[in-house]
Amino acid sequence: MYEAVIGLEVHVQLSTDSKIFSGSSTNFGAEPNTQASLIDLGMPGVLPVPNAKVFEMAVKFGLAIDAEIGRESIFDRKNYFYPDLPKGYQISQFEKPIVGPGRVTISLEDGTSKTINVTRAHLEEDAGKSVHDAFDGMTGVDLNRAGTPLLEIVSEPELRSAKEAVAYLKVIHSIIRYLDISDGNMAEGSMRCDCNVSIRPKGSDTLGTRTEIKNVNSFRFVEKAINTEINRQIEILEDGGRVIQETRLYDPDKDETRSMRSKEEANDYRYFPDPDLLPVVLDDSFISACRDALPELPEARKARYISEYGITDYDAGVLVADRDVADYFAEVANTSGEGKLAANWVMGSVLAELNQTSGSITDFAVTAKQLSDLIGRIKDNTLNSKTAKTVFEALLASEGEVDAIIESKGLVQVTDTGAIEAIVDEVIAENPDQVANYRAAPEEKQGKMLGFFVGQVMKKSQGKANPQAVNQILSSKLSG
Amino acid sequence: MSLTSDDVKRVAKLARLGLTEAETTETLAQLNSILELVDQMQQIDTHGVAPLAHPLELKQTLRADAVTETDQREKFQAIAPQADAGLYLVPRVVE
Amino acid sequence: MSQITDLSFSELKKALGDRTLSSVDITNAFLDRIETLNPTLNAFITITHDEAMQAAKEADAAISNGTATAYTGLPIAHKDLFCTDGTLTTCGSKILSNFVAPYDAHVVSQCKNAGLVSLGKLNMDEFAMGSSNENSYYGPVKNPWDTTRVPGGSSGGSAAAVAAQLTPLATATDTGGSIRQPAAFTGTSGLKPTYGRVSRFGMIAYASSLDQGGLIAHTAEDVAHGLGLIAGHDSRDSTSANQPVPDYTETLNDSLKGKVIGIPKQFFDDRLDSRMHQAMNDVLEVFKSLGATTIEVSLDHVAEAIPAYYVIAPAEASANLSRFDGVRFGYRADSPADLMDLYERSRGEGFGSEVKRRILIGTYALSEGYYDAYYKKAQQIRRLIRDDFNRALSSCDLLFGPTTPSTAFVLGEKTADPVAMYLEDIYTVATNMAGLPGGSFQAPLIDGLPTGYQLTGRAFGESMILNAAHQVQLATDWHTLRPEGV
Predict the structure, then answer these.
(1) What is the pLDDT of residue A421?
(2) Separation CA A457–CA A472 (nearest Å)
(3) Which one of A339, A362, C174, C366 has the fewest CB atoms closer than 10 angstroms to its CB?
(4) Is the predicted pLDDT of residue C1 greater than 50, yes or no?
(5) Residues of chain A with pLDDT under 70
(6) Chains A and C: how many Cβ contacts under 8 Å?
């Protein structure tokens, strides 16, 4: 039996307006090289000047994971040649990173939680992008992304399964979203993940040879890539082979990892302090200003939701994972005054819809105000669960506001006992056989048989009859 | 410490410097004489001395997060060895 | 009357102010002389004749309509590692032989803003690596005092152009002596300011923590004028010092009475050539006659400055020169087979042998397993050297010594032996390691060849250096001697 040992290096693009060392825009999707200045291009004679905002963002992250903050951090040069790396070195932080050891807590499937230690987080510049297919025999280089600020968050190798790795990644994602330091969009590459994977016999405390899977770009692929790599390594060892330390790439189409030899040779980065930059010294006032500006973080918000809205630990965990969802829920709960109903609707209908459409809560068709109105109409018995669902569908289709939909679809619940009695009478008259059977049946079986009559009444009322009233009137009339 | 011609080749590869055999041989002797000069440093006891990266030991100043650059692609790519469709071109890179 | 090109920068400034000369007169005179002498001296790589004449006309217009600055219309030439927008900027290298810079260096735009007329770009050792200007892709520069000799380096073009009166003022840079040593070899005045005094933005880097832009001219007064133009904080250079810029000309005439000149004993040991020693004593006598006193000081680790320098500078250079890869600008090898071939041949063919040597040394010193023994050790020694200087300068106002071990050597004399060439900078390198300002000024000739003495000041103490040198120049005529026969 083998055990996996996994550590993640998560690269997060910080959502600054300008780049880490130049005044170029960081906007995504511009025409190639239109956001590449002299500095981003590494022209002869140019010099980097760091963006203050990246330090604020990095310090906030450090405080959020309870980490040591590097009061004096130093930028180093990491030397290697690649066409998307204009200077032939990447400005990064090596010996003195901005964020030192910290920790995050992940929830495991069995309901327990586990602390994962974060080794460090450091600031660096992103590289450009290569375009491989547009030119015959040539690669095109777009340096718009070069110089975009990155925070690289390095975990200790304390993750033991692909699921744990994903849980960790989701916590990191949640934190950066709460801090609003990145859009965390993995599809656009704003958050990328390198997975260091090795295996060893269970119970062993020596580390196996690890491989690094580069640039995995979704939660799902992280899970699949790690599992695929674990299985590959197990097969090698089972066959009596040896795992080679190397960089690999995950191919989601084939669900396999393959060796990236191009990045492999001569890994001697020759780190040394960048002489174009001086030590960045952060004083107490800077750090305490960052601390004061920290928003409520997921763990704190979860605890608050449990006590404030009376919802379960599990529900609160689901609701706070995404800051925008959590905000949406809070608005629905506060406006409607119905925490539990709000939780049910957000988790059931809203998140289900978002999952299905891969949509985002921030441009979701049903606003928090509308969902809160809907809940209000359930509370005042205008809607029952069935008609409420119809209204929700109509809101999704942007058919109007809650009351207008109820009106136009004629969904007001019938609670008038006289009207219900009339329908009950009709149903009894139309089904003499069933009535006779019911009356002949022993009492303990009657409950089950009542369902038929309820269904008939609801059908005739087009679902609008109040189900409690229907039950009550039916059982009294049938027994009479 | 003294270099071998394999060392020179390894370092030249790291630095992406194409050297001919003759250059490698000539360079080897010169580099070794330079290293001999450099090794005079080892006579000095530097135990406990903090490395000095910048003579004046100033602190970094930071700039505000503002976009100050405009698109100058045309001007910058006018001096590029090879560019097309706004991209710098290099021989095909296989990943 | 003497010729226009005989005049110093300060004299030309006066003539322009008096309107006895126009900028067109001055610019024409220097361009003519460049045309005559540059084929022999090879001091200029690029002569911007038409742009200069255009700028001179505009300067004259500005002078007559009252929009001129105090410096409008005066000539200057730039070392060819300062980027000049729209003008070839080669750094003395084949790899930049087609590089028309797309922007101006801070120093260049400061000069432009003051209305100076740039005559062109000056030859230099490739990437500022060298002490003889023999490492230029554009061929060696000849010393105007004796064209069989080198002008020193790396700012050999700047020094030779001033000495031969091809320009009255030239920008230059100094990483280990590249302003001071050529100034000494050519009988000119050169100043390397404090590290951080002049912005490095647009100055193509050799060794970032040591490089500093400065000037070469005929007199300390000229340098004072030039320094006022190029010094000052620049937010585009993180290592640029945010310190006020004094008027360097204002203190030139301060008395030297009571000033203390420190004599580092390591500079005057028995290895110093006796005639050079005598020349230095002659200068010291002048200082004493002006009321200064001397004390002996010690720079204990100065001997290790060269070894440490030849780790730090190549290490920084090895990374600084990685951007010259044939991808975005500059030389690209013909028909590269693949990416590796593109890199190796563009760089292999584009860089000269001294540059390659330093890239190799620097790459080696930073490579895995050697960092502590080389780079870290060198940085530790750097601290010891810096502390030595600060200690010495706490007991005196200026440090005094020879700039070079000898007068200008013969072309080709040291090209086969890199280490012998490196030892040329034995008196100058330590100043860069300490980041302090240093100037070289004219001392008595030896065998008809110039020599220089060096003054090193406290951080941002350029005024003191220029003041002292100016006082000596008022009392002597060494700085007025010009090479004959060119």
Answers:
(1) 87
(2) 12
(3) A362
(4) no
(5) 261-266, 480
(6) 102
pTM of the predicted protein model = 0.91
Going by C-alpha positions, the residue among C452, C425, C390 that lies closest to residue C207 is C425
Task: Name the nearest CA neighbour of C102 among A144, A274, B79, A168.
Answer: B79
Distance CA(A50)–CA(A53), nearest Å, equals 9
Mean pLDDT of C464-472: 98
Residues of C classed as catalytic = 79, 154, 178
CATH classification of A417-479 is 3.40.30.10, yes or no? no
Nearest CA in chain C to A143: C328
Q: Domain spans of chain B?
A: 5-43
Compute the average pLDDT of residues C349-374: 96
Min Cα–Cα distance to chain A from B12, Å: 11
Residues counted in chain C: 486
> Considering only CB atoms, which chain C residues are within 8 Å of A81?
322, 325, 343
Residue B63 contacts C where some CB pair is shorter than 8 Å: yes
Q: Do C357 and B16 count as a contact with CB atoms less than 8 A apart?
A: no
State the Cα–Cα distance between residues A140 and A153, nearest whole angstrom.
30
Tokens 């008022």 correspond to what residue?
C474
CB contact under 8 A, C384 and B49: yes
Sheet hosting strand A149-155, strand order edge to edge: A102-107, A113-125, A149-155, A2-13, A191-201, A211-216, A247-251, A256-259
Q: CATH homologous superfamily for C1-486?
A: Amidase signature (AS) domain (3.90.1300.10)
Rounded CA separation C49/C27 (Å): 9
| Mean pLDDT for the stretch of residues C361-380 | 96
Place of tokens 């990437």: C127
| Distance between CA atoms of residues A33 and A31, nearest Å | 6
Tell me if residue C54 falls in helix, strand or coil. Answer: helix
Min Cα separation A266/chain B (Å) = 7
pLDDT at residue C180 in the model: 98
**Architecture field, domain B5-43:** Orthogonal Bundle (1.10)
How far apart are the C-alpha atoms of C42 and C121, rounded to whole Å?
Answer: 11
Residues C201-223 pLDDT 10s:
999 999 999 999 999 999 999 99
Residue of chain C nearest A21, judged by CA positions: C236
